[in-house]
Amino acid sequence: MTVRKTAVTAVPLHPLLAERWSPRGLDATHELTQDQLTAVLEAARWSPSASNTQPWRFAVARRGTRTFDDVRDALARGNQLWAHAASALVVVAAETTGPDGAPRPWAVYDTGQAVAHLSVQAQHEGLVLHQLGGFDRDRVAALLGLPDQVQPLVVLALGRHAAGAELPEALAAREVAPRERLPLDALLLPLPEDPAA
């Protein structure tokens, strides 16, 4: 059974955007090809950043490696229940201070843009990813030997969707639930009155 969760939008969107969602049901037998992995990382590499600082950093741990197991063990318990089936766990970090010691106030924003680009390329590659904020940042930073200026932000569970994957009941229900977003009008900030009007 294929689960399609195409977004209901006010105007048509590109299918790579409209069809992207974040499943937890992953194929535990799938292995990323090197070309797929290179493509998603290249998409992130070419995203925009303030003053072209490119603050994003990635650590890719493939399933079957000790680093994968260590990153999985640093996830919140609810995420461990299903993320073990990912083809790779990708730690995404931001370099928040430059080599000259100057702070990079847009580093986290820019790294988020890089992940957005990565997610669209993953969709194009026939892959899915689920972004995980529930993990022990200090533990992951120590595991990877990250310096203080490189802060882990998120872990990406990357792989291939498996609609029939075994999940706890509550998570299985979320896999088939409709996608929801606030209406567009609710996202628009009110503008001050134009005195010239």
Automatic annotation (TrEMBL):
Superkingdom classification of source: Bacteria
Ranges of residues in domain Nitroreductase: 18-77
Stated family: Belongs to the nitroreductase family.
Organism: Modestobacter muralis
InterPro entries: Nitroreductase, Nitroreductase-like
GO terms of molecular function: oxidoreductase activity
Pfam short name (any one): Nitroreductase
Keyword Oxidoreductase appears in the UniProt entry: yes
Name this protein carries in UniProt: Nitroreductase
Keywords: Oxidoreductase
